[in-house]
Each structure stands twice: as structure tokens, then as C-alpha cells.
């Protein structure tokens, strides 16, 4: 069984590095109790960059998310992002927007640029106002550096930063794409229940970046789930400052466009997988691949239904090959399914054969379920389309973490 991502690579994954022209920093100012944990950070481009974003569909969209969306939609340009953790500045009324705009202006003034070029991102506890004295203190301490501390400054219950850098050659120029994100709980993107930032020095043709991001988000971040909850704050923002000085990439330029989108997809996919793997209390990453679906939408729907099923997640945690839970999850969707000829494999081992239990050894299957990555392949026998989703198991520790989140 082969993951759909295991194809010939046109890009190279490299150690974390900022693309040409980007600076960043992260500091601790007291938003988090632990003095060893960064809680404010920022990202800066030496020149205004093309910008695109996707945003949570939760109706209680937080002030910083609304502000960033408004800012990007003005001219689709940004030169900086300022971020904080611990306090979401969500469901905070008119004061929430006042504070988000003040945070934006503080960062813009420190960077020496206009407020219309700065996005704002916050994450943490909903319903609490930003302590603006600490926000002001944090901005005053941030510098334009080459470190990666901003990748720590956005974490909440995450156990580690989530980062990736890739490089490709376009027109003899090295183009770098770097991404980082946070997300561990309240993960069920409709776009997207987390914070994600992808920056590149590639030069992108006008009007191409937003559709590129939206298309890739649908295949990556929107195909992960940890607990089925969509949060209020979250977004994915992409900046492209053009400092690699390549020929502008557009959909009309087949080879370069394909090369760039392959690397771009790899960045978003890796970040999405990292979030799923780091789900609160999780012990296993679960990948579901669906093939022979009637449509791509059907395939995506079935894959996400399986990784989102609490019964499937609990069975995987308990290392119980209860395939009926997978079949039930598939059947709950409105996808076109051949109910008499659906097959399922788990880590390459046949589990269901033409809608009947495969002849498998329970001990062998239980041993396969001890792996840290569980891969499920589903054949719907209804067409030629494929789909993919990622999630994690459901553990006792998930309940413990979320029962004491504000403690």
C-alpha cells in the first residue's frame, strides 16, 4: 500500500531556514506562566509581499482573525505578522477589535512600516481580553533577527514546534518555501482550526497566490481532525516577497507552476500531518487513503469521516481491529459506495474484503496497531478518484488535558 504522497519529488527538504528577506523573533513577556516558554513573536519581510489567507468559518470569528482578513483583502499585501499565545482575544466585543488594532499599530511602528501591511494572530483562551501592557512590552522587545523563536511563540498545548523548509530551482534561482504552525486541540478545520504561516521568496504572478493557497488548504489542513471542534481564531497566511527574483510563477507556466505547487503542497501537507500527530494526548498518527471513489469530494469526505470517528479513534488507541467501526464511519457519509464490494487494509494487511471480514490473524493485526503511524486504505469500488485525511487516536490523556485547560 502506497501513500498518495510518495511520488517523485521535484523539491528538496532542507533544515529550517528563512527565505531571502525574512526576519523573525520570539520572546516571553508573561502571557504564559512558564518563563521558559515564548508567548509573543513576529515575522517581517524586507519588502511588501503578496499575501493570501484562509480563515476559520466559526461564526464567532475572533477580532485578530477578522482584522487580518480585512488587512489582506485591501491590496493582498503584507510585510509583517505579529502573534501571541495564551489569550485568544475572541468573543471580546468592541474592545477586542480595538486591542487587535493597537497590537497591529504597535508592531507596525516598531517595524517602521504602515499598519495596513501588518497582520495579527492570537490563540489561547477564548473570552479574555488581551493584557495590552504585556502586548506593548512584548512588541518593544521583539527584534528583526534570523532566529526561529516565533515558531515557539504561538504554541498552546502543542508538545513541540511544527516547521518545514523546502527548496526548488526555478530559472537557475533557488526558491525557498518555509512553513510553521500550531495546533493540537480544537482541530477540525473548515478552514482552518490552527495557526499556520508559509513564507517564500518566490515571485508569484499577480492574482495567483490566493487561489493557490485555497486549493492546497482544501487538500491538506482541511483534511485533518483531532476532536471535531472548529475554533474561533484560526487562519493560514502565505507571504511571497519575490526576492528570489525568478520569473513570476503563474498557472500558464506549466513546468514552473507544477514545480512550485509540488513543494508548496509538501510544506502544507507536512504541517497538517504534524498537527494531527501532535493531537492532544495522542499516541498515534492515523492516515486514511481512499481510492476508487466516484468523485474527489466523496473520497475526501470518506477519509475525513474515518479519522474523525471517535469510535475508530478509540479502537486504534486500544489496538483493537474492530473494522465495523470503519465501515460504519464510511456508511454515515453520503458518498457513492459499492456496499457489497468495499475493501479495507490496515498497515498493508487486509481487514475487509468485498464488504466481508478478511481472513486475518487477530494477533498479527493487533501487533500492527502498536505502530506509531496507522495507515488505513479504503477501496470504494465506485470510480477513479482518490482522497486523503489525517487524524490521531483518542486517549484518556485527551480528556485530562481538556478538563483542566484553564488550570
From TrEMBL:
| InterPro entries in alphabetical order | Arg_biosynth_ArgJ, ArgJ-like_dom_sf, ArgJ_beta_C
Q: Could you mention a single GO BP entry for this protein?
A: ornithine biosynthetic process
User: What Enzyme Commission number(s) apply to this enzyme?
Assistant: 2.3.1.35, 2.3.1.1
What's a single GO CC term here? cytoplasm
Tell me which SUPFAM superfamilies the record gives. Answer: DmpA/ArgJ-like (SSF56266)
Against Gene3D superfamilies, the record matches this protein to: ArgJ beta chain, C-terminal domain (3.10.20.340), L-amino peptidase D-ALA esterase/amidase (3.60.70.12)
Q: Which domain of life is it from?
A: Bacteria
Q: Could you state a single Gene Ontology molecular function term? A: L-glutamate N-acetyltransferase activity, acting on acetyl-L-ornithine as donor
Has the keyword Protein transport been applied to this entry?
no
Q: Which reaction does this enzyme catalyse, per its entry?
A: N(2)-acetyl-L-ornithine + L-glutamate = N-acetyl-L-glutamate + L-ornithine; L-glutamate + acetyl-CoA = N-acetyl-L-glutamate + CoA + H(+)
Which residues make up the annotated site Cleavage? 192-193
The annotated pathway is:
Amino-acid biosynthesis; L-arginine biosynthesis; L-ornithine and N-acetyl-L-glutamate from L-glutamate and N(2)-acetyl-L-ornithine (cyclic): step 1/1; Amino-acid biosynthesis; L-arginine biosynthesis; N(2)-acetyl-L-ornithine from L-glutamate: step 1/4
Where, subcellularly, is it found?
Cytoplasm
The family assignment reads: Belongs to the ArgJ family.
The protein's assembly and partners = Heterotetramer of two alpha and two beta chains.
Name it. Arginine biosynthesis bifunctional protein ArgJ
Lineage, top ranks: Bacteria, Bacillati, Bacillota, Bacilli, Lactobacillales
